[in-house]
Amino acid sequence: MSSKIEIRGDSLPNIPWEDKPRGCKDVMWRYSQNPIIPRDLLPASNSIFNSAVVPFEGTFAGVFRCDDTARDMKIHSGRSEDGINWQIEPDRIEMLCDDPEIGQFDYAYDPRVCKIEDRYYVSWCNGYHGPTIGMAWTKDFKTYHQLENAYLPFNRNGVLFPRKINGNYAMLSRPSDNGHTPFGDIFYSESPDMTFWGKHRFLMASCGSWQKTKIGPGPIPIETSEGWLLIYHGVLTSCNGFVYSVGAALLDLEQPWKVLYRTKPYILNPRKDYECVGDVPNVVFPCAALVDADTGRLAMYYGGADTVTCLAFAYVDELVTFVKANSL
Ligand code: BMA
Questions:
Q1: Residue having the nearest C-alpha atom to atom 4 of ligand 1
Q2: Which of 106, 186, 314, 324 measures 20 to 30 Å from 148, CA to CA?
Q3: Sheet containing 144-146: order of strands
């Protein structure tokens, strides 16, 4: 399928892919072999989920959230030939850091990975007197250089843009509290140097039904001729607790805090057993998306029920068209 909407990214002919099932009317569909990573892939893992992958040297690399059987939250490096079968390092990533106070490990979860120029930047929810956004970079997924935390606590879901905007690095995040935050809107920030973050702008608020309690940015935004395609999660509070679904928005290319369109319906919600049953039931939580700019194929990685890692697929042009046609 050729894409009418221009995707400003690289070719990725080996993107993991499965065609849309015959008769499927959804804009996003699941991989038939989900979950791709079981909870016990590592000898001491309780769960492997909410993880981030990127193309790397013709294959794939990633940073994985692995909670262990002591229920400590850690991030691990992983490599894959095909983006589906993963080898994950049994030990957590130990980062180099010039400042021992910042480098001291407490907990790490929900990583994102963003390639900017020749570095892969990792942003994650980092324990420093409560959750905030930890930052690091690597070139080889072996040695990681930890930077200053981006924000004061409390914050979650730090998601970088893949290029500078207005001459600065740019990042989305979701200020939060110290617990299972019952609120949350998405904000935009810029930095000249990946250390000092400012120019904070409000992006969008929780609203409606499936995204009424809180929202948070998911994968690295995808640059298209129609705007930045942002996939995000939204949370509804049911009488049985939180329900995490996935939606999408289009943001202005040069002023990304301006939301052009945003889906009223979700594009993926918990309905398969591996999304509805696990350590936290009824959660689909996206943290990464691969895109092939030539075909418009998109492969999204998401956590199922805070337990396993799953894949879903879409075409970028169908998704952009869907966001515009089904906007709030
Ligand atoms: C959020 C984060 C995610 C998790 C989700 C559902 O607050 O902690 O890691 O997937 O809750 O439990």
A1: 306
A2: 186
A3: 108-116, 119-127, 131-138, 144-146
Q: What gap in Å lies between CA 180 and CA 77, rounded to an integer?
A: 27
Q: Which residues line ligand 1 (CB under 6 A)?
A: 50, 109-110, 244, 280, 283, 285, 303, 306
What are the tokens at 319?
């998704």
Nearest CA to ligand 1 atom 7: 180
- Sequence-distant (6+) residues with CB within 8 A of 286 are 218, 219, 231, 232, 233, 246, 268, 300, 301, 302, 303
Compute the distance from residue 14 Cα to the ligand 1 centre, in Å: 30
pLDDT single digits (tens) 166-178: 999 999 999 999 9
Tens of pLDDT, residues 196-231: 999 999 999 999 999 999 999 999 999 999 999 999
Residue nearest to atom 12 of ligand 1 (CA): 280
